[in-house]
Amino acid sequence: xxxGLLSGVIAIVALIFVYEWxxxxxxxxxxxxxxxxxxxxxxxxxxxxxxxxDLPGPTLWVEAVYKPLGKLLEHP
Length: 76
Fold this sequence. Notes:
Elements: H1 2-20, H2 29-51, H3 58-73
Helix pairs in contact: 1-2
C-alpha cells in the first residue's frame, strides 16, 4: 500500500513538472534549477512521511532550537 502512495506522489510531481516546465522561460536557468531542487525535496519529504509517519514535524524542530534561547531571555 505504501508503494502505491509513493507512486501516486511521484505521478503527481511528474504531472506538475510536465505542466510547469514549458512555462519557464529558457533564459531563467536559476529558476529551472530551483524548480528541480524543490520538486526533488518535496518528493523525498513525501516519501519519508509515507514510510515513517511518526517523524517529528517542523514545529518540534523550531521548539528544540528556540527553547534554550527562550530560557535565556526569561526574567528572573
